[in-house]
Specification:
single chain, 483 residues, disordered C terminus
């Protein structure tokens, strides 16, 4: 398992259910991490900085060889979409659990992927190939402002900048190139037409080595800050059945066009009944649990089977989606400081439960949140027969969860789920900007304080049964348990 944190535990748990022995790797900062205790073996791969450990291809391949591992699952982030790592695995005789190096390279070049899928007739937004600054100024004039700058080797929202006016373009180009060079070692940028209020919808697909590709439905990922997702749900509340069928077919066609194998995700923008291809994420996504909960499959188990050369065990007609699932990402961030990442030691941890609730995380009291890695602590996912019931279950879970020691995104999620726009499903990618950032700050701080006080008081109460039989929550749990 060439990763850490919640995704390392997630993959290790599936391996254990399959009877597959696991090998963890760790940096100096992760000597006490939970994923080490969950694995059968663990190997140190370097210092605390990711470049010295989880991005160290040589050290990770060596750990695989020393342990006799048959395969490496990369999780997400770090080396998961690195074609050189996939190639190094192949040369070492270790199976890379992911797409072939050529498909990784094509998907990793966002501009090349745009050209490839556009040639297959899949709609893409008007945009350019990678260009220099002089050509970018002329191209932006042709596209019309606002315009979006994107990194050709981009991912995770890095290197993306919205430019409203021509006078802002030169500085934004310098900033985007600097970010792209720092994050990806590649400062190529391209331009794309800006949509003001789209939805961000992505489609999970799986592909075997025998030419079969199916999609597992879509995920709505419009609630984001700085182009990084906060809340995801499946299915999208915005798609008609016709649009759902069309975008699913486009995702399968895009995967076929780039020669994809294993699990991947095609991302789209949806606006006014039309959709536009953005990119393929050639890995397991952070938000994969919502797909698992509506389709009843284990994507990691499927990934392992596909990497072993197995054929897909079902066709498109065999995909049965059921109910609704929503995920909230719990990160160590100060939501009142523009979601500023935070470091510190985790204090108390109380995790929620109940019917339809799933927690994917690596949280433990005393755990250190360091500056070296992503501040994601856990994911709270709720499933319900309907969207309304999924929201109710997730809201209940967010009332129960307690994490102290660092500020977290929990208060934001409580606020977002209660917001009328989210409740109605009528929201877009600028939800955080328009609703959260524009809220009266004084009231927001008071609301966060009130939520903290209420949580503290509720955590000290003695549980009591309602005076007359089970609560609605209890009745729902009882009903689901016997249905």
């Amino acid at each position: 398992m060439a990763n850490r944190g919640e995704i390392a535990l997630r993959v290790i748990r599936t391996c254990r259910t399959l009877g597959v022995a696991t090998v963890a790797v760790y940096s100096d900062a992760d000597r006490g991490a939970l994923h080490l205790g969950a694995a059968d073996e663990a190997y140190r791969v370097g210092g605390a900085a990711a470049a010295e450990s989880y991005l160290n291809i040589g050290a990770i391949v060596e750990a695989a060889q020393r342990s006799g591992a048959d395969a490496i699952h990369p999780g997400y982030g770090f080396l998961s979409e690195n074609p050189a790592f996939a190639e190094a695995c192949a040369q070492a005789g270790v199976v890379f659990v992911g797409p072939p190096p050529a498909a990784l390279a094509l998907c990793g070049d966002k501009a090349a992927a745009r050209r490839t899928v556009a040639a297959a007739g899949i709609p893409v937004l008007a945009g350019t190939d990678p260009l220099d600054d002089h050509a970018a100024i002329a191209a932006a004039d042709r596209l019309g402002f606002p315009v979006l700058i994107k990194a050709a080797a981009g991912g995770g929202g890095k290197g993306i900048h919205l430019v409203q006016r021509p006078t802002d373009l030169p500085a934004a180009l310098r900033l985007a190139r600097g970010e792209a060079r720092g994050a990806f070692g590649d400062d190529r940028i391209y331009l794309e037409r800006w949509l003001d209020h789209p939805r961000h919808v992505e489609v999970q697909f799986v592909a075997d080595a025998h030419g079969a590709i199916v999609h597992l439905g879509e995920r709505e990922c419009s609630i984001q800050r700085r182009h990084q997702k906060l809340i995801e749900e499946a299915p999208s509340p915005a798609l008609s059945d016709d649009l759902r069928d069309a975008i699913g077919a486009a995702a399968v066609a895009a995967a076929r066009t780039v020669g994809y194998q294993n699990a991947g995700t095609a991302e789209f923008l949806v606006s006014d009944g039309a959709f536009f291809f953005l990119e393929i994420n050639a890995r397991l996504q952070v938000e994969h649990p919502v797909t698992e909960m509506v389709c009843g499959c284990d994507l990691v188990a499927l990934q392992l089977a596909l990497a072993a050369g197995d054929a897909l065990p079902f066709g498109q007609e065999g995909v049965r989606l059921r109910g609704h699932a929503i995920e909230c990402r719990i990160s160590a961030e100060d939501i009142d400081q523009q979601f500023l990442p935070w470091t510190g030691r985790i204090g108390q941890v109380v995790l929620p439960g109940g019917p339809g609730i799933r927690i994917d995380g690596a949280l433990a009291p005393g755990m250190e949140v360091t500056r070296f890695y992503d501040p994601l602590l856990a994911k709270v996912i709720a499933w319900g027969p309907t969207r309304r019931e999924a929201i109710a279950r997730l809201s209940m879970a967010l009332r129960e969860i307690i994490v102290t020691g660092v500020p977290t995104t929990i208060p934001f999620h409580r606020w977002a789920l209660a917001h009328p726009a989210f409740q109605s499903g009528d929201y877009g990618t600028r939800f955080v900007e328009h609703e959260w950032d524009a809220r009266p700050r004084r009231h927001g701080r008071l609301a966060a304080l009130a939520a903290a006080v209420l949580t503290h008081r509720e955590s000290r109460r003695t549980p009591l049964l309602p005076p007359q039989g089970l609560s609605a929550w209890g009745r729902a749990a009882r009903g689901e348990g016997v249905s």
